[in-house]
Recover the amino acids of this structure.
């Protein structure tokens, strides 16, 4: 008979959480091992400053990695991002109540607390929310297990505290709620998570029935290449064919035409963005949670000036697994179009990919070949900065517009004459010795 060793923190809430998980797996036997986390051992650390991200998991993570336990149960919102190498979330349980509650002396709601009252919270965001409604309050750091926290109110040390509704419910303390607060909470609040070593496939199978992510769709962050459909990778094509929804950028608009999925324009044209990044991130997340296979299609490569990193982080922090499909970046497409080797044995042994926008942030590092993206409105500034950094005025400079597309055009000039050019994005500027004339013969 299989018997697992489960590690948990020692608080009454943590123990309830373990019991709750295993009540759902009646056939699985387990032995409980408790261990105080770093945060349990250092109760003076304020969570309102910048606590270590693994403050509630460090010791338990180590126990798993040392193979002294099979799995750990956590409040999902306590997990550090990213998880330590070698660990994985093997189950994310469906959310309970995700809201926060106010517990106060005499059950007063927030608006009726006395002027200047002391209110405890462990979240800097909650502090902000509290102060935005009641700037007079004195917000202080709140630590300890739920019992110890409630004691701060009962002893008169604090007039009120903010606690997660689900924690109070789990402990049968819902009667202490004076008011449910309307504040947005951590996206994983109210979820329990089971972590284990990433290589424990058998454990994944045992916990899979509990994993709410079973019903989620897949997410892929896909590079579309420079625009010509022939430069799309086969892997990208497969994901795009399997997608239910494609969120696409302006530079990928030629590509999406070929696919049957629902298409949502998420690009930026003439400086106007279809959605602010934060809203787009949330739309991606909600679509995955609703069970759709989501393709996020970006021009070029998703990790080069595409804000792909932000989208990945947003989703991964919410425990969405994201596939990344690299794409041919505009620098490569422009170099191919203009026949400019970005490196060349003996002449150029380093390349820098740079942003030409905004003007005051243009960098001029000491690489042999410099490739500027988003340089459409800043060619004069780039030219001036590079000359000031010591590059000779006759250094070759080549602009490639619409690389790989029918409208492709190439302008070969020098650093000195670059400032006279007036051309429009999308263009790539390549500067360096290898950009001298290699035009087609
Ligand atoms: N992730 C993309 C870059 C996005 S930033 C990539 O890896 O290519 C947008 C910039 O990319 C544009 O301002 C332009 O500088 C460049 N770009 C994208 N496609 C291009 C193309 N077909 N031709 C020239 N430049 C292009």
């Amino acid at each position: 008979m299989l018997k697992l060793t489960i590690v948990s923190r020692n608080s009454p809430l943590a123990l309830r959480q373990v019991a709750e998980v295993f009540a759902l797996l009646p056939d699985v036997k387990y032995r409980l091992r408790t261990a105080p986390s770093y945060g349990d051992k250092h109760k003076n650390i304020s969570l309102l400053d910048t606590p270590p991200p693994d403050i509630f998991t460090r010791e338990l993570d180590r126990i798993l990695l040392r193979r002294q336990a099979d799995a750990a149960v956590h409040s999902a919102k306590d997990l550090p991002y990213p998880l330590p190498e070698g660990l994985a979330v093997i189950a994310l349980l469906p959310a309970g109540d995700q809201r926060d509650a106010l517990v106060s002396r005499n059950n007063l709601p927030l608006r009726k607390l006395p002027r200047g009252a002391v209110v405890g919270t462990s979240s800097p965001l909650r502090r902000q929310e509290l102060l935005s409604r009641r700037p007079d309050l004195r917000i202080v750091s709140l630590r300890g297990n739920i019992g110890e926290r409630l004691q701060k109110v009962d002893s008169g040390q604090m007039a009120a505290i903010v606690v997660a509704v689900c924690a109070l419910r789990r402990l049968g303390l819902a009667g202490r709620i004076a008011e449910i607060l309307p504040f947005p909470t951590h996206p994983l609040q109210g979820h329990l998570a089971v972590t284990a070593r990433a290589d424990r496939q058998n454990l994944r199978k045992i916990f899979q029935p509990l994993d709410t992510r079973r019903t989620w769709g897949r997410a892929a962050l896909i590079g579309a290449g420079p625009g010509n459909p022939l430069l799309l990778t086969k892997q990208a094509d497969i994901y795009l064919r399997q997608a239910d929804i494609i969120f696409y950028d302006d530079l990928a608009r030629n590509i999406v035409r070929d696919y049957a999925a629902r298409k949502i324009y998420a690009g930026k044209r003439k400086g106007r963005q279809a959605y602010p990044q934060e809203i787009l991130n949330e739309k991606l997340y909600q679509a995955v949670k609703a069970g759709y296979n989501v393709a996020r299609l970006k021009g070029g490569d998703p990790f080069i000036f595409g804000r792909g990193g932000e989208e990945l982080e947003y989703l991964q922090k919410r425990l969405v697994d994201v596939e990344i499909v690299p794409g041919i970046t505009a620098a490569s497409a422009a170099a191919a179009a203009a026949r400019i080797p970005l490196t060349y044995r003996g002449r150029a042994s380093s390349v820098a990919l740079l942003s030409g926008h905004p003007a005051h942030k243009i960098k001029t590092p000491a690489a042999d070949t410099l490739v500027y993206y988003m340089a459409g409105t800043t060619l004069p500034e780039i030219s001036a900065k590079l000359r000031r950094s010591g590059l000779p005025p006759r250094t070759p400079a080549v602009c490639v517009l619409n690389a790989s597309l029918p409208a492709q055009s190439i302008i070969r000039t020098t650093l000195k004459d670059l400032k006279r050019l007036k051309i429009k994005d999308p263009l790539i500027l390549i500067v360096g010795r290898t950009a001298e004339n290699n035009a087609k013969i």
